Amino acid sequence: MNLLAPVIERTIVTKTQTPPANDPQQKKLLDILVNSTSLSPNDLKSLLGAMDNFDVVAKVFLLEGVPFVFASSPMKYLIFREQVADRFEIGYQDVCIVGSAKLGFSPSPHKFGRTFAETSDVDVVIISSAMFDRGTHELFKHLNHVGPALDFHNHKPVSVDARDWRLHREAVRNFVYENFNPAHLPENNALRNEIFSSISSTSALFLALEPQVFVSKIRCRIFRHWRAAEAYYINTLRQLKRQLAAGDKSDPSASGVDIELDDDDIEVPENA
Fold this sequence. Notes:
Region (Disordered): 247-272
Oligomer: single chain
Number of strands: 6
Structural class: alpha+beta
Strand order of the largest sheet: 1-2-4-3
Distance between the termini: 32 Å
């Protein structure tokens, strides 16, 4: 049996107070966690409903393993990781695909279950302390000139553009949770262009797949270390569980969801 099985079983028992061996539904969930390399939206819903600790689910299904888009060509996924790693001067083990390209459907709270298609983006996680520091410094340098100038003698309220305010809030939150989104840099920024050029230059590899995969665009989020990435995607699942429990009626932005400046680019929660 998978070495994770005892840990997973204890997690399920803690939540349900029923040993999986005595409950067919819990036994099925344990089998999914231990033996499955992929899962369906309904499987994920069931797992979220049965668990409060999502560490294992995030690691096994969101961050590790061969993605849906490379399911028929695992070796090409390794080549993709090597190509990205070479461009960012990191190890291939510090690169992975997440989101709908990983699962075959979106785990994002606001579009859960949407299947991966030609119009879907490929989301890539990059672990690089150096790039996180460089990107964050560049972003805050830009933000220093956004909005009204500081005037310590003026105690009257000032007006701030909602878009600028959201950018400030997201930049600070991302810094606290040790991740950097290059999409927050202005379009003419040299570092933004460097990052997007490096990541998009790997798109030809998707066309070499059988069948071919046409991607809308390749995005990335840069984390200072793996612990930050794990926490980020654990929070994705936590927010998704709340969203599903609310019947998809709650507002993701009210719970710390990181909403990109492009309305089509909505990410996942950062707040526990």
